[in-house]
Amino acid sequence: MGDGSAADAVYSSPALRCRQSVAPFAEAAGLDVVTVAELHEADGFRDPVA
Q1: What are phi and psi of 13, to 5 degrees?
Q2: SS in 3 state form for the chain?
Q3: What are phi and psi of 26, to 5 degrees?
Q4: Can you list the residues of the chain whose pLDDT is less than 70?
Q5: Which one of 2, 13, 14, 33 has the minimum C-beta count within 10 Å?
Q6: Nearest-angstrom CA–CA distance, 18 and 36
Q7: Alpha-carbon separation of residue 9 from 20, 23, 47, 50 (angstroms)
Q8: Rounded to two decimals, what is the model's pTM?
Q9: What is the pLDDT of residue 44?
């Protein structure tokens, strides 16, 4: 965090891409990644509405 504040926790969805995205930050901060099942694609990956 650029303002000098520290993170207390790192949360991620169960999606692999999300966990991989936050893993370097969590490691640098000395924290575990907390996976939260509710952080998921609620409607899947539908095509965007035109």
Answers
A1: -75, 170
A2: CCCCCCCCCEEECCCHHHHHHHHHHHHHHCCCEEECCCCCCCCCCCCCCC
A3: -60, -45
A4: 1-5, 43-45
A5: 2
A6: 11
A7: 16, 12, 33, 38
A8: 0.69
A9: 67
Residue type for position 40: H
Selection from 10, 3, 2, 13 nearest residue 29 by Cα: 10
Please tell me the distance from the alpha carbon of residue 50 to that of residue 19, in angstroms, as a whole number.
30
Phi and psi at residue 14, to the nearest 5°: -70, -10
Nearest Cα to Cα of residue 32 among 16, 18, 41, 19: 19
Which amino acid belongs to residue 3?
D
24 within 8 A of 10, measured Cβ to Cβ = no
